[in-house]
Write a structure and sequence with these properties.
Layout (H helix, E strand, L loop, with lengths): L7 H8 L10 H20 L3 H12 L3 H12 L6 H32 L3 H29 L8 H8 L4 H18 L9
Length: 192
């Protein structure tokens, strides 16, 4: 996942960052879904998170946007049952296979051979398209996640579904949990 402009701070100021006692259930989940990508970018920018996620992506084929989505859902108190989670992963996987992975392959290939200004500009456009494809993947996840309910522990359950070895999975989930805890204090809980 590449960096995007940080719009989270502006949304937090505009919507207020205090959690309301009235703002539970569907309204809280709607606010989570509306803001999750911007918060994911903040989480990804936390010290160590990008390198840990990329290592998991390269070593265990972790879908980083899905992992970060699930880690933030866990941190904000949301969940889904196993069947719904599997459907979320299938839809995210379809999008990833058709759009994200081909763009990533193209970007990585171009990164090896950039030689002139036009090629560098083309590389930057592909990089931006890959980020947009990831943002749309997360939007699809959020849209599908909105009506669901169920148990938490989504990040750990996701890593289990891809057979990431337990010591590594547990360490990664712990790191994500600690970083998410720090940034989720600013999760807006008012849908706009």
């Amino acid at each position: 996942m590449e960096k995007a402009p940080d719009a989270f701070a502006e949304k937090t100021v505009a919507s207020g960052n205090a959690r309301s006692e009235r703002d539970t259930g569907p309204a809280r989940r709607a606010a989570f879904c509306a803001n999750v990508f911007d918060v994911m970018v903040r989480l990804y920018d936390e010290p160590g998170i990008a390198s840990w996620c990329l290592e998991a992506q390269n070593s265990h084929a972790v879908d980083v946007p899905s992992l970060l989505f699930f880690a933030l859902a866990d941190s904000d108190g949301h969940g889904a049952d196993d069947g719904d989670m599997q459907r979320l992963l299938e839809r995210a996987g379809e999008w990833r296979a058709v759009f994200v992975l081909p763009l990533r392959h193209l970007r990585l290939t171009l990164r090896q051979g950039r030689r002139n200004t036009a090629e560098i500009e083309f590389y930057e456009k592909i990089k931006a398209a890959e980020l947009e494809a990831e943002r749309l993947q997360v939007r699809r996840l959020a849209d599908d996640f909105l009506p669901l309910e169920g148990p938490g522990g989504l990040a750990a359950r996701y890593l289990e579904t891809i057979s990431m070895p337990e010591p590594e999975a547990g360490t990664l989930v712990g790191r994500l949990r600690a970083a998410a805890k720090a940034i989720c204090r600013g999760f807006p809980h008012h849908a706009h």
